[in-house]
């Protein structure tokens, strides 16, 4: 490991030559030069092999059909090794850990978490044996595993009969897990009725200074009490809203002298009023396709995620494996000609017995 006081790129050739002095296509130029030298060497080698072809390949003076391409493989492997090594030398080393993104690239995930006493009712999950709060924690655990959390800042607002920000712009997943699973957040509020709109007002105040369309608001609630009027206006920084309902939507449970259940129709209406999306999280996780759509990051393929360093490592592996394996392949399968005296097991048996 390199301490923070030292430059981890001390070995980098770009520091000794200067960034401006290095041609932008230096790895490609070196690979091309080595490919030309390798082709010249292969041509000279082919002339020498041709002189003793009858000894190496027998009377036909020709190797196996695939072995004709061996010089091409060797030249390409040398070029791949040269390009890979040069690229790794010139590319900056990979930095593992948290990287501070520019302000224009920062994304925000604002979670509004219902912590009312009804969230302690045990009627959630595929089997109906989880509390609504526990189901909400599982849904958000899966959520954070599938979104690019390294490129996002997470804020959490807990709400009951009021709203309180718990954490703002955090990247520490352990802190977020602790909030979702262990903190008795309902104790921070006096007894009363759930007021979801106060959470939306608090979310609007937090998200107002953020860049336009840089925030995703996720509301996790059982939708027990949602007023019909007084919808707050979310700022331009909010890209999308996802409302996740927890709790049994069919059979309610009694609490505080009334029946509480997930109010699907109210949550759907609320999502429509916020121009967002509703998902019933009681039995199913949030779909990956929905996450990719609302988070604003399309799910890229494996080749789209590869960097120049990754391609350099692939080139080194392929080139080194080819150069190491070609001699053995040529020795074993380069020709069918096997000079010398055959072993006793391979000698043909006489047609007439010896005692005849």
UniProtKB/TrEMBL annotation:
Q: Which UniProt keywords apply?
A: Membrane, Transmembrane, Transmembrane helix
Highest taxon in the source lineage: Bacteria
List, alphabetically, the PROSITE patterns matched.
VWFA
Q: Where is the VWFA domain?
A: 108-306
The record's section on InterPro entries has: VWF_A, vWFA_dom_sf
Segments crossing the lipid bilayer: 25-44, 64-85, 311-330
Membrane is among the record's keywords: yes
**What protein name applies here?**
von Willebrand factor type A
């Amino acid at each position: 490991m390199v301490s923070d006081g030292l430059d981890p790129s001390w070995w980098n050739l770009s520091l000794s030559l200067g960034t401006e002095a290095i041609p932008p296509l230096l790895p490609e130029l070196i690979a091309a030069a080595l490919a030309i030298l390798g082709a010249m060497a292969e041509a000279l080698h082919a002339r020498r092999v041709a002189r003793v072809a009858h000894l190496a390949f027998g009377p036909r003076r020709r190797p196996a059909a695939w072995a004709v391409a061996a010089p091409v493989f060797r030249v390409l492997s040398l070029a791949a090794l040269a390009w890979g090594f040069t690229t790794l030398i010139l590319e900056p080393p990979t930095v593992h850990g948290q990287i501070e993104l520019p302000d224009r690239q920062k994304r925000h995930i604002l979670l509004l978490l219902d912590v009312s006493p009804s969230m302690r009712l045990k009627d959630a999950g595929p089997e109906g044996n989880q509390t609504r709060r526990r189901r909400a924690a599982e849904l958000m655990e899966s959520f954070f595993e599938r979104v690019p959390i390294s490129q996002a800042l997470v804020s959490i607002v807990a709400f009951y009969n009021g709203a309180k920000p718990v954490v703002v712009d955090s990247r520490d997943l352990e802190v977020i897990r602790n909030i979702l699973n262990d903190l008795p957040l309902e104790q921070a509020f006096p007894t009363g009725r759930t007021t979801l709109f106060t959470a939306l007002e608090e979310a609007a105040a937090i998200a107002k200074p953020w860049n336009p369309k840089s925030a995703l608001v996720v509301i996790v609630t059982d939708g027990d009490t949602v007023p019909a009027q007084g919808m707050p206006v979310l700022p331009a920084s909010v890209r999308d809203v996802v409302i996740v309902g927890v709790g049994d939507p069919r059979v309610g449970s009694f609490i505080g002298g009334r029946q509480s259940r997930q109010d699907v129709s109210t949550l759907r209406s609320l999502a429509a009023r916020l121009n967002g999306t509703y998902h019933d999280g009681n039995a199913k996780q949030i779909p990956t396709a929905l996450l990719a759509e609302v988070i604003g990051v399309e799910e890229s393929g494996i080749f789209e995620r590869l960097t120049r360093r990754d391609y350099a490592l692939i080139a080194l592996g392929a080139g080194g494996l080819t150069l190491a394996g070609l001699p053995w392949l040529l020795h074993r399968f380069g020709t069918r000609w096997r000079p010398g005296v055959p072993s006793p097991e391979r000698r043909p048996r006489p047609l007439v017995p010896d005692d005849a």
